[in-house]
Amino acid sequence: MNFSESFRKLRMSQLQGSSSLKRKRQDLALVSGSMTDGERVLYNLIHSKKDIGIWTGDMKRETNLPDSIVKKSLKLLQSKNLIKEVVNIQNKGRKHYMAAEFEPSKEITGGDWYTQGSLDTYFINLVKDVCLKYIFRQKVATCDGILEWSRKSGVFTVGITAQQTDEILRALVLDDEIEEVKSTGIGDFSSVPVGRICYRCKSKGGIRGEQKPGAMAFIPCGVCPRINFCTPDGIISPRTCVYYQKWLDF
Fold it and tell me: What keyword terms does UniProt attach to this protein (predicted)?
């Protein structure tokens, strides 16, 4: 491809991008023109919060709009598909909204292990079982090895990330199902570089539940994949965790 052809394609791409942006601005301007003052104020506020969104109580506080106007405007904005209601795991009883073009952040959804605001314990236990059986079969395994195998084998219908795999392995260590060791490079560790962190089973046959569970397994924290992000004053915290509170009440 010569220089002229490359420049022509680059210029066309720039023009198309500019045209697309212009259309989006025109569409937004058209929609904005059909909004009431209350809708416009609320939409601008909600849009400014991006993937975090905002609670209706904070909307009223920041806009000083009457409750009736807020309710009516939110309903109209939803009917126009400009905003959407999302579940905030930290405050499920509150109505939380964000602009339709954004996807909720992990701070709102709780992360990859949550489905519609609830911790997906069934899927977590399924991933634990699969990882445990693979480690037992391999005798020792690394996080990267488990991740690569799961992707190639297609054992899961959804993709599992490196972070999710690491969280599952940490949970299994806390459950006292596996142990974290460093490779010696010999014997069972011959396929793993010396000094590399890897895991091996403590349970018989790679079946969960045969060994006495670790102390952490008796509280929600022991199976929570977000435990590494849990701090006393953080967004994820024992003070706001509904599962931990239920365990205390029990």
Answer: DNA-directed RNA polymerase, Nucleus, Transcription
A 10 A CB-CB count for 58 gives 14
- Whole-number pLDDT of residue 203: 65
Contact 99, 82 (CB under 8 A): yes
Q: Is residue 201 within a helix (H) or strand (E), and if so which, with residue range?
A: strand 197-201
Q: Which residue type does 49 have?
A: K
State the alpha helices, DSSP H only, in the chain.
3-33, 37-48, 56-63, 67-79, 106-109, 121-138, 143-153, 162-174, 242-249
Domain positions in the chain are 35-109, 114-249
What is the rounded distance in angstroms from the CA atom of residue 210 to the CA atom of residue 202? 9
pLDDT tens digits, 208-241: 554 444 444 445 566 566 666 677 667 677 777 7
Q: What are phi and psi of 200, to 5 degrees?
A: -140, 155
- Report CA-CA distances (Å) from 241 to 69, 122, 224: 33, 19, 11
What secondary structure, in 3-state letters, does 122-159 show?
Answer: HHHHHHHHHHHHHHHHHCCECHHHHHHHHHHHCCCCCC
User: Taking the complete model, does pTM exceed 0.70, yes or no?
Assistant: no
* 41, pLDDT greater than 90: yes
Identify the three-state secondary structure at position 134.
helix
Mean pLDDT of the chain: 78
CATH code for the structural domain at 35-109: 1.10.10.10
Instruction: Tell me the β-bridge partners of 134.
Output: none
